[in-house]
Amino acid sequence: MTTFESISRPTDEKEWLATIAPPLVHPARPDFDFDVAIVGLGYVGLPTALAYHSAHSRVLALDVSARRIDTIRAQGADLLDSDRLRLAEALDRPDFVLTSDPEELRRAAAVIVCVPTPIDEHLVPDLSILRAACTTILSTVTPGQTLMLTSTTYVGCTDDLLVKPLTELGLSVGNDVFVAFSAERIDPGNAAFGHDEVPRVVGGATPQCEEEATRLLLRYVTTVHRVRSLAAAEMTKLLENTFRAVNIALANEFADICTSLDIDVADVIDAASTKPYGFMPFLPGPGVGGHCIPCDPHYLLWQLKRSRVSAPMITQAMTEISARPHRVVDRVQTVLSERGRGMTGARVLVVGIAYKADVEDLRESPALEILDELIRRGARVGYLDPHFDSVALAGGSSLAGIADPAAFDADLVVLHTRHRDTDLSWLDDRQIVLDTTYRGVDVAHRVNL
């Protein structure tokens, strides 16, 4: 095989298992008990572990949190329905083992790191979790293992956290142990793109590392695209999510323009989407949440700043995205004022606080900042979301969800996230609804952001 190509798994399962993805063994250690170990069992790691197990791999699933392990065993993890079925089946199998003991990693032929790489309040990458995970696998590394990072990070991170330390340990990367990077491409809550159907991009520290990593990925995905280096693979993920960030910022700007001209931006986007080439729809909203778009571009900007390289378009897009939740609160204040009501004491109900529909995930959700800012400006705030009984706010305070939204008697309702199971029948024609989704509800007094 050569580099810079996409490789697809054979459709015949027996051929695939016998040739492309043979049991992962190495002359120095032929007795691995597991084909793959997954480190970190969150929104990426658990579905990855289940995908490997469903594809006939022996899986060791590790998380340092015993509480998380208990939640998974109790089948309480937030998963797609298809993954819930996979988990129920896997828990009864001896070739799927949950553990919080890092020493167990020695028993796996491959170790894949799937841990969060967030940013802090100053928009600086927080690599503490990833560094800890890499330190753990370095302490248990065994000749013959393939080590792969999937967490989004800066260009050169895999080299810094794995390749160089392994060399310092006296191991020959590409001979004794194999190192690769292949960023995850999971979209939580989206069943339209199966985890095993989305192509994976992979880069290896050496050609042999790339070969081993490709074989590892083809144990469950249908297509692997190989690039020439670790750095190219790392940069690919940064481009993917920076592309999305820039276009979301543009969609938000068009939404503001359309509002000022009394045009429905949803109609405009739907119309533009009829063009079969040269246009890709991005939807405006109250901000951006989750583990990717609000964070990943800052890894690139952080690295470029250290190198004194400017990226004005990306910088401006991320500035606009970070300001969007405050734009929501400003709009709330304006709408109330237009109706003769001040913010102080106004009853504002936020509907949906997850960062996207149909996920039990608050990471970087714009709703958290919106709730905090509404309270800071004097509003009496409540929220409605069936996925969260309460939510932690800035400064350590918490806010309980509203059981009866009609009884809350809101002066203004902010539609932030519309889950499929969210009942809005309690809305009536007297209430003002600020629809930050631009297409979420049909009421008499609906206003756009």
UniProtKB/TrEMBL annotation:
Example of a GO MF term: oxidoreductase activity, acting on the CH-CH group of donors, NAD or NADP as acceptor
Chain coiled-coil ranges: none
Domain UDP-glucose/GDP-mannose dehydrogenase C-terminal: 349-440
InterPro entries the record matches: 6-PGluconate_DH-like_C_sf, NAD(P)-bd_dom_sf, UDP-Glc/GDP-Man, UDP-Glc/GDP-Man_DH_C, UDP-Glc/GDP-Man_DH_C_sf, UDP-Glc/GDP-Man_DH_dimer, UDP-Glc/GDP-Man_DH_N, UDP_ManNAc/GlcNAc_DH
Keywords for the protein's UniProt record, in alphabetical order: NAD, Oxidoreductase
Biological processes, Gene Ontology terms: polysaccharide biosynthetic process
Pfam families reported in the protein's UniProt record: UDPG_MGDP_dh (PF00984), UDPG_MGDP_dh_C (PF03720), UDPG_MGDP_dh_N (PF03721)
Domain of life: Bacteria
Keyword Lipid biosynthesis in record: no
Recorded family membership: Belongs to the UDP-glucose/GDP-mannose dehydrogenase family.
Protein name: Nucleotide sugar dehydrogenase
Organism of derivation: Herbiconiux flava
Classification lineage: Bacteria, Bacillati, Actinomycetota, Actinomycetes, Micrococcales
